[in-house]
Amino acid sequence: MARNSQAPGIAKSRIAKSRAGIRPRSGGRIRSENGNTHSDLMNGEIGLDALAGHAGYAVRRFQIWIFQDFIRTLGAVDIRPTQYSVMTVIGANPGLSQMAVAKRLGIERARLVHLLDSLEQRDLVSRVKSATDRRSHALHLTARGRTALAQFKRLAAEHERHVAEKIGKENREKLLQILSDFT
Length: 183
Prior knowledge:
Blueprint: H1 8-19, E1 22-24, E2 30-32, H2 38-42, H3 55-73, H4 81-92, E3 96-97, H5 98-105, H6 109-121, E4 125-129, E5 137-141, H7 143-167, H8 169-179
Antiparallel strand pairs: 1-2, 3-5, 4-5
């Protein structure tokens, strides 16, 4: 049985690269199946192929940027996008049930209960037993919650200015119009 004359680490490296779809070409440069070299990949020049034409991929990437900027902008007040949404809807519709808020915002009920617990612990939201349905709770902002929401809205407006700076004011308006069917 002949032994491999290459160093064990090099052989393992080539096997791993082969399994990853990267194969050596002329001159010993490593290329992937789409022709990118290892140095291309290290420089962030990874091709997206069909993803570049997928609306879902582009929307998801923009959503990530949106959430990161929102969290950065509202970080000092320790409020997350979903918490802001819940407080905004409760503030605009005092007395809504948990079920109504969950349904309107598309949040799983169990997740909303956990979120409301955290907002209640911070004295931003209160749950009051419903006068019409003993199985349900009416949601209200506390006095502290109303004051906090006003501050959150000012910061959220700053975040929206960042969005307009990123994509342009007209494009932001067009985007809101396009997405309005989903809100």
